Amino acid sequence: MPSSPTIVFYQSSPRHLYGGQLDILRFFASYDPARLTPIVLAPMEGAFTERVRALGLPLQIMPLPAELAQTGGALLHGSGWDRIRQSALLTPWSLKLARWLRRIQADAVYANNRRAVLTLGPAAHLARKPLFWHIKQDRDRGRMDRLAMRLITSAACCSRDVQQAFRQRHPAYASRIGYAPNGVPLDEFSSPGPDMRRALAIPPDAPVIGLAGSVTPRKGVDLFVRAALQLARSHPRTHFILAGDAPTAYADFRREILARAQPLIETGRFHAPGWLADMPAFYRTIDILALPSRIEGFGLAVIEAAAAGVPAVRTASGGHTESTIDGETGFVIPVDDLDALRQRLTWLLEHPEERRRMGRSARAYALANFGLDRFVDALTDALTAITGGS
User: Rounded CA gap, 46 and 15, in Å?
Assistant: First the structure.
């Protein structure tokens, strides 16, 4: 019986455990070894690689040159001379990686984002290995995306919205751009269990609005804080939780955000616990999820919250047509519309019976459509297809 194809999964940001890292860790915990054999590749150690080791998967650390570790595969930034210098820095690493790919007899290489595609592309081509891009956000990066499309063998988008956007922008490569629907471990989020109210000193009957995600402008965290400051005046019993931390590059942004929220932090109504290991407890704590993202691929937090019976107010960024039925499982608002965010959150606070009804609808929708098996099967199909397997 032939062995399953060996897929090298490259994670370019192993220090963090946000949606993009968690969904592939969930894949590793549920994949079928009869269909593929994963080997994980990363440029450094971090929280992600710790989880990979705990799962017992083979792991290879191959550090990038120091300068490229900061710029990743964004080789088209800067002047022409900058690009020549960065390409020269990447060449020895690419040759080393190509030799390793041939030595382990890899059948394909998985790139977790465009930076990874541009970093891995030369090595994959030198080793003559198919390159797969898992596209997880709808952001037009112009010539970087055009180069990525030339480098990859195929891609899978995490939502239909993202797939449609990329196919429209790159019609010559539309046949390469597939779809692997997102999914979550629904039982983990829908089961009863402890919440965080006592730990955060939140009264049992106080309404709570939460945001889960990286503390970056992309997630609209600044809009969340501004809405919280406004709502705190009109709804003095409401509490707010910001669950997540900032990548190193956004440490100043996080400090600025917390400085803005300081009046509510001082009164004990704004909570910023940082990165949380127990996200189900977070969703059991909140009554409403806010996700005012400026750029999104899908919005896994919306489905995690929905499984817990929590409606969301999210922006019309990537994935909204799948994750949220506007007016039934939550609300969809325009990007960067603070007034719409505040108005929808206000309505949900002031109509608790409707809020609970929407939460029940959100749970039923999530349970019917976003199981983890759906995601694992779709991504496995996409990866084995480029190796000629089934």
Answer: 4
How far apart, in whole angstroms, are the C-alpha atoms of residue 77 and residue 290? 33
pLDDT in tens, the chain (390 residues): 358 999 999 999 898 888 889 999 999 999 999 999 999 999 999 999 999 999 999 999 999 887 666 544 444 455 555 665 667 788 899 999 999 999 999 999 999 999 899 999 999 999 999 999 999 988 888 888 999 999 999 999 999 999 999 999 999 999 999 999 999 999 999 999 999 999 999 999 999 999 999 999 999 999 999 999 999 999 999 999 999 999 888 999 999 999 999 999 999 999 999 999 899 999 999 999 999 999 999 999 999 999 999 999 999 999 999 999 999 999 999 999 999 999 999 999 999 999 999 999 999 999 999 999 999 999 999 999 999 865
Q: How far apart (Å, rounded) are the C-alpha atoms in residues 51 and 49?
A: 5
Distance CA 357, CA 22 (A): 29
Q: How far apart are CA 80 and CA 182, in angstroms?
A: 38
Q: Does the pTM exceed 0.85?
A: yes
CA–CA gap between residue 343 and residue 116 (Å, rounded): 39
- Best CA proximity match to 179, nearest among 298, 293, 295, 41: 298
Give the Cα separation of 378 and 313 in Å (integer).
28
| Alpha helix ranges (H) inside the chain | 19-30, 47-54, 66-71, 80-103, 114-127, 143-151, 160-169, 186-190, 197-200, 221-234, 251-260, 262-266, 279-285, 300-307, 320-323, 338-350, 352-369, 372-385
**Which domains, ranges and CATH numbers included, belong to the chain?**
6-183+372-385 (3.40.50.2000), 186-369 (3.40.50.2000)
